[in-house]
Amino acid sequence: MTVKATRLGSIEGVDRADSMSFLAIPYAAPPTGPLRWMPPAPPASWSGTLDATKHPNRAFQAPFPPELMPKGGIPGALSEDMLYLNVHTPAADDKKRPVMVWIHGGGFTLGSANDFDPISFVEHHDVVVVCINYRLGLFGFLDLSRFGPEYAGSVSLGFQDQIAAIRWVADNIADYGGDPANITICGGSAGAGAVLSLLAAPTAKGLFHKAIAISPLEISAAAPDIITPCAAYMQMDEPVFFEHLKAMSGQELYDFQANGGIGSAACVDGTIIVKSIPEAIREQVNPVPLLVGCVLQEGNMLTAAMGDNPAIFSMIEAGLVANAGGGDAARYTAYLDKMSAGRTPADRMNQMWFDYFRAFTLRAAQGSTDGGTPAWVYTFAVPTSHEHGPTHGADVTFAFDAVGDIDEGEWRAFYQNTAENRAIAAMWSGVLVTFMRSGNPNSPALPHWPVYDAQRRSCMVLEAVPKLVDGPDSAEALAAYGLATSDA
User: What is the CATH number of the domain that holds 285?
Assistant: First the structure.
């Protein structure tokens, strides 16, 4: 164990092979009691030595699907008291290392700071990684603005938590061997959607300096009305229903959400996330260099998880087509119908999942470069014998140089722990670190990688041997995605 004196007080962490971890550091007060559905408040100070040797609580959530559960499970109890972060560092010294803040995925309803151990990445590349918790589901993404001005932005409390955590990092990471002037925010899936959403959050301005979005999920254009139908179902007036929700325990509130199938949605709320993400990026709300990409077969695992259920397929399709089409569902649906003619429903769903992630990737990148800030686009296509292929989430192990940590049967084993895959992971994670250090991913390990723009539309395809491809998306696909094609 290591005890470190910091500006907040003495803290005890865990010694690793060539690094150390400080777990469950509070970055905000517990959002319980009167602080439920309130913006994150400053944490209480501590006296003596803070025990940072055990994983923090996790937000209330459903169990991970068995095929996605790491061996040994995920540590941390489920609790409403979960605004903590984990710092992983080569050394808590005075060296100013690049810092990554990892925002977990899980559709804004699953996940935690404990899901992934980035220690290989930390030790191999001499960087600091901070993994953060944030409120999920009805706790973090429920629109309560009708109940008073104090609830403005309530539908973005999860984003407010992320901003508070990044602010803590900016204020304190120098105590843990990190450089507060070189912070990269990075996430996968919903976490990548959060990364791009924070580019549209004025209150996050200046807190981070680069952004990496791995298969970004696009947030909704507006908040859904959860209160009206739920209050009607409970046969309560809306203010009475709200008091009923406030009186519930955290477990009861989560059970109410889970048993009723009640959704929540991260969205453009006009208060925290001020406008559509591509528009905000184009207007340079938070202008930072951007690295963004998706996987060759995004939908294979996601579609398989739905089973052979036409009703679920139809429900998911209704929620995806507008996003894939940049707000024009009819335009994209016409393209989807043409692309999926004569194919199975699963093939159609796979096409739609890929388009969903690819379209948002390209709109974000083009918005960035149109606005004057460089962005680079990639496609992860490393071959694998896994039945799902290079699918959603399969690239995270490569991004964190963790292929050598894979045990057979783990959810990350979309790929085998082979010398070839370890070499690709070392190369690709090194590219991400090059971007973290300099704001440019170009590396001797890659062909020259131009900034993405609407004329050339360059994309780095990560295969066994990386290659640069100009204009891989057809003019028809770009039009369906809502991207200009006259100059493509």
Answer: 3.40.50.1820
